[in-house]
Amino acid sequence: MQIGFNLPTTGPLIEPDSLVRIVTEGEALGFDYVTISDHIMVPRHLASKYPYTGTGEFPAGASAAWLEQLTTTAFVAALTKRLRFVLSVMVVPHRPAVLTAKVLSTIDHLSKGRLTLGIGVGWCREEFEAIGAAPFDERGAVTDEWMAACQELWSAEAPSFAGKHVRFDDVVFTPKPVQRPIPIWVGGESAPALRRTVRYAHGWYPVGTNPQHPMNTASTFERGLERFREFCRRGGRDPQEITLAHRVLSGPGVRPRGRVAGEGELFTGGDADWVGDIRRLQELGVTSVDVRLFGTGAAQSLQGTIDAMHRFRDGVLSKLG
Question: What is the pLDDT of residue 299?
Fold first, then answer.
């Protein structure tokens, strides 16, 4: 089981010295990867609903400062030797396809092949409009075309592409990524996300707290996996070819152990609960789990976050073997 932790890209811990300490401490503690989130500019007033809370409220708020994801990832790459970094997730239509392909290829090249590309289509219409991104209602089709263009640039010696939004021919695109290919994990639990996973991804990367597609108990998680396998069968893909990863939006001790329909709620409670939850997911075929260890109580401070990381290492990571 690979265990990751989330790097702050918003809030009080985004100063350079704080990020350096968190990233280097995570690598020293034995985490396998760090996740980096993506927002560019969130308008003050949102009608769009965040998909991972019951109320639709966006936890970070609409007026928070945000670091840009890809430049932050390059910063992290220069600070580390072993740690992988997972884009969690990159909102594909936010950036032009060819420039995105070049930035990602450069990060993979300079990090000696440590990038995992988590992708999503985005949920915030107001942000799309504020930054002049591709039309929000076309974001699914745009995501698929962008990724096809990226894969062509990363793999072909003489790249050529003619899509609705992206066209190039007779170009040189080097250096290529070190990884052939860069692993792509699709975030999201919807039918389009599952179809996208089956069509071209290397991993499926759901969050358990989506009220529309809950995977927050062992039973609902198993049902989510069966739904995933059914999409694989329809798409002619062997589910064993696709990595199963899981993103958790909190850490141990944030909430007491909950129950849903009489069953224990995954990733609530203390260290022993989390060890059991991770082991259960491992039995179900999940190979990567990442957690958020900052942002509440004392963990809003740098020292509180470092302490939370150490507690997680001692109380959870060390128990997993």
Answer: 59
Q: What whole-number distance in Å separates Cα of residue 144 and Cα of residue 89?
A: 15
Q: Cα separation of 288 and 291, whole Å? A: 10
Q: What string of DSSP letters covers 156-217?
A: -SS--EE-SS-EE-S----SPPSSSS--EEEE--SHHHHHHHHHH-SEEE-BTT-TTS---S
Half-sphere exposure of 205 (CA within 13 A, CB side): 27
The CATH superfamily assigned to 38-182 is Luciferase-like domain (3.20.20.30)
Separation of first and last alpha carbons in the chain: 9
Residue 60 pLDDT: 72
- Rounded CA-CA distance 292/249 in Å is 5
pLDDT digits (tens, 9 = 90+) for 45-100: 888 988 988 888 887 766 678 999 999 999 999 999 999 999 999 999 999 999 99
Domain boundaries, the chain: 38-182
Q: If DSSP codes are grouped into helix, strand and coil, which group holds residue 223?
A: helix
Orientation of helix 97-110 relative to helix 69-79, angle to 10°: 10
Cβ distance 264 to 219 under 8 Å? no
Find tokens 């999503």 and name the residue. 120
Closest CA to 146 of 73, 91, 189, 86: 91
Phi-psi region of 132 (alpha: psi -120 to 50; beta: other; left: phi over 0): left
Q: Which residue has the tokens 């069966």?
A: 226
Query: Do residues 164 and 116 touch, judged by C-beta distance below 8 A?
Result: no
Q: How far apart are CA 174 and CA 238, in angstroms?
A: 32
